[in-house]
Design a protein that fits this description.
Radius of gyration of chain A: 27 Å
Oligomer: heterodimer
Shape of chain A: elongated
Structural class of chain B: alpha/beta
Distance between the termini of chain B: 35 Å
Order of helices and strands of chain A: HHEHEHEHEHHHHHHHHHH
Strand order of the largest sheet of chain A: 2-1-3-4
Helix content of chain B: 25-40%
Distance between the termini of chain A: 23 Å
Number of domains of chain A: 2
Structural class of chain A: alpha/beta
Strand order of the largest sheet of chain B: 6-7-8-3-9-10
Chain lengths: 368, 249
């Protein structure tokens, strides 16, 4: 035990004396959260829209006011014709436009045969979809509120959208679990593998192996500081996410912590596995970056929907731990589901952890 | 088993596939001896030494180190030997004393003993003032002396040195060998690999490995007489000249 203690103390000294690493460890999580939360947001907030009013009556004016009061859209200009709107799209002045056709009110009330038109710039499809669906539902609401249509809209409004759990489509909601997945992968897998391989590269690992210290002690000592740092990062992300960015924490804290812990263990054992396979720090960095971090970003469903991917990529995503972690974490945090709904994901992560630990322990003894 | 043989090697071999890195070697090393393990690069020195340090398992044959079988009692051996690897290897971002303390702790020394012995050691190395200096800021010669001192700090029965003087200037090398001889005088057996033939002159006995086998084993003087030459260098050229394996294998 004394051996182990002095050994763990040494590992902490390595980290605390390495200022750049320390900075990465503590500033990166917060920086990434703000980056993904604000700068790289998919939100449609403050999109510019244009409007064409061909009706020119009290209803259309009233309706335009309502849209203007929405915090999501900013009126760029009122255009006189559809062709002006089209040139505004080309100039990049607006992302979406609403057109109120001539005699909209009359046609609607008497013939029940008119419609508002929404145009959107779909060169960015995701954005366009969000704009159209949000503006569409907003227009429906505005119509329903106006007294002329209140009776009408009850019957004509066939589709009603309900955006559950995150009605404002705030992208920071999904970002917090995603950043957790990335940061933990980085700290655990990357840093751990690099720190073990560094000892191989410098020759100190040989010294340790020639000493009577047990291999398992070496492993525990190498992993424990990164385990602690990951836990600290995990808690930091939760706190910043909840109190600064206002992301709800609806599920039980116990299970959130349990899920985080399992994922940390998976990532740590992956880092350990990498360190048994490679001989240089650079290779460790590349492998944990390519094999762990990249799939965590691309194949976890965080950036791109998994359902649209080719089968091969879907298969790879199944063996990506982050895929099981990020989605599950957002279920827990934002939907606040009970644990019985995430048992499968937890199970998969547990199996991954066990498998990785067994393989890497076996490898560690053989290779070094 | 004679009592004064601390290393006994019998028909030891290590194969990697078809490649016989170490091919059926046998020898003994006496207590307190400085035993030089010479050979060209790729002759199998390091592989043989790793087996003796219980770092890798032999393909066949047996060896006893400090009275224990390398195949069945690796941990008993590891506790009784010291090891200094080819690369200079202490922790660069730990201070001089922290390195000593760490390895003392790993070898199960008591805190008080570590403290006392470290002070004596630093005084002898004239490094008392560098006690809290980070190892990375020491000159290479000092690092090497420190690495050696750390390897024998826990008073092992045998210390294994794998090419300890690579990349060091001649004066530092001479000093280093003085340290080795002082250590041997205290009863610690020194097993050292090198390819500097002038260093072989410091050894009590040397073995010369060629192609995984021991081609010659005797005192430096006896070898020089046997081959009728003036220096170990010439002995080496005569023996190693017959090698079939190329450099760097």
């Amino acid at each position: 035990m004394k051996q182990l203690r002095s050994f763990i103390a040494k590992e902490f000294k390595h980290i605390f004396r390495d200022v750049p690493t320390m900075l990465i460890l503590f500033i990166m999580p917060v920086a990434m959260m703000f980056l993904f939360g604000y700068a790289l947001s998919n939100d449609i907030k403050h999109s510019s829209y244009g409007i064409v009013d061909m009706s020119h009556d009290s209803f259309s004016r009233d309706f335009m006011h309502k849209v203007e009061n929405s915090e999501f859209f900013r009126l760029h200009k009122e255009y006189a014709s559809i062709s002006e709107v089209m040139s505004a799209f080309r100039k990049g002045e607006i992302q979406v436009a609403v057109i109120i056709p001539a005699n909209f009110k009359q046609d609607m009330l008497h013939l029940n045969r008119s419609a508002l038109q929404i145009y959107a710039d779909a060169s960015n499809p995701n954005m366009a979809q969000q704009l159209v669906s949000y503006l569409g539902s907003f227009c429906n609401q505005a119509l329903a509120q106006s007294k002329e249509f209140s009776a009408q809209s009850q019957s004509s409004d066939l589709v009603r959208m309900h955006l559950l759990y995150n009605p404002q489509m705030n992208s920071s909601y999904s970002m917090v679990p995603a950043v957790m997945g990335l940061i933990l992968a980085l700290v655990c897998a990357m840093m751990t593998s690099v720190s073990i391989v560094r000892e191989k590269e410098r020759g100190t690992m040989e010294l340790l192996l020639a000493s009577p210290i047990k291999t398992i002690y070496i492993i525990i000592a190498k992993l424990s500081p990164y385990f602690m740092l990951s836990c600290i990062n995990f808690v930091t992300i939760l706190i910043v996410g909840h109190f600064v960015m206002g992301v709800p924490v609806n599920g039980s804290l116990f299970w959130i912590a349990a899920l985080g812990l399992i994922y940390i263990i998976v990532s740590l054992s992956f880092g350990l596995l990498v360190s048994t396979v490679v001989q240089s720090q650079l290779a460790a960095l590349l492998i944990s970056g390519m094999v762990f971090m990249m799939p965590s970003m691309i194949l976890s469903g965080m950036m791109f929907p998994l359902e649209n991917m080719p089968l091969l990529l879907q298969f790879i995503s199944v063996i990506t731990p982050a895929r099981w972690f990020i989605g599950t974490m957002s279920k827990l945090m934002i939907m606040g589901v009970e644990v019985k709904y995430i048992l499968k994901e937890m199970g998969v992560l547990l199996i991954m952890a066990t498998g990785l630990i067994i393989i890497s322990l076996k490898n560690f003894k053989q290779r070094l | 088993m004679e009592n004064d043989n601390v290393i006994i090697v019998r028909h030891l071999s290590k194969h990697f596939g078809n490649f016989k890195a170490v091919d059926n070697i046998s020898f003994e090393v006496k207590k307190g001896e400085v035993f030089g393990f010479l050979g060209a690069n790729g002759a199998g020195k390091t592989t043989a030494m790793k087996m003796l340090c219980a770092l890798s398992k032999p393909t066949s044959g047996s060896a006893f180190v400090a009275g224990y079988d390398i195949s069945t009692n690796p941990n008993k051996i590891k506790a009784r030997i010291g090891y200094m690897s080819q690369k200079f290897s202490l922790y660069e971002d730990l201070s001089v004393f922290e390195n000593i303390k760490l390895f003392g702790g790993i070898y199960g020394m008591k805190r008080k003993d570590i403290e006392n012995n470290a002070n004596i050691l630093l005084e002898r190395l004239e490094m008392t003032e560098e006690r809290n200096t980070m190892v990375k800021s020491l000159p290479l010669g000092w690092k090497q002396k420190l690495a050696f001192s750390v390897a024998v700090f826990h008073q092992p029965q045998i210390v294994f040195l794998d090419e300890p003087t690579g990349g060091v200037d001649p004066i530092t090398r001479r000093r280093f060998w003085e340290m080795i001889c002082e250590t041997a005088a205290t009863g610690i057996t020194v097993f050292v690999t090198t390819h500097y033939m002038d260093e072989a002159e410091y050894c009590n006995r040397v073995s010369l490995m060629v192609d995984g086998q021991i081609a010659a084993l005797d005192t430096p003087n006896a070898l020089k007489t046997q081959f009728n030459v003036q220096s170990m260098e010439e002995v080496f050229f005569q023996i190693a000249g017959k090698a079939k394996r190329g450099e760097g294998l």
